[in-house]
Amino acid sequence: MSETSAPPAAPDRTRMPDLNWSDAHRAQLQMRYSDIDTNHHVNNGRYGEYLENARIQLMHDVGLWGEGERAVLARMEMDYVQEIRWGQALVVESLIEKIGRSSWTVVARILADGMPCAFARTVIVRVNAEHRPEPIPDGVREALRPLMVRG
Q1: Signal peptide location in the record (predicted)?
Q2: What is the pTM of this model?
Q3: Backbone angles phi and psi of 72, in degrees to 5
């Protein structure tokens, strides 16, 4: 079999948690030709950009993107499960895993043509104008609550 006709490998499910993804926020993303590297797949550095764009869409969609709203990325971890190739339709699904005093944790998976390709966990910290952590207001907690991971 040639490299182009080989069926895609099944994703490693041990690195892709089985969560309530049907409740997730969905962000459809546009792949750019410049995302492709010399191996003819999406460069791994672009995955972080995809997740960033999805987080911004999530924050906008729940009303946390506006004047006075400030948040910074404090941590990101990612498991790459399967490559993404040129022309595949990209969707990032995101859930809120935890809401703390001044931070919230987002778990997300990147899908290409509906196939899970990466899983990420990010910690976002709410900050004030001086970029110091500040408590998450009740309104923000309520905006994020519908996207919570359920056990």
Answers
A1: none
A2: 0.86
A3: -130, 150
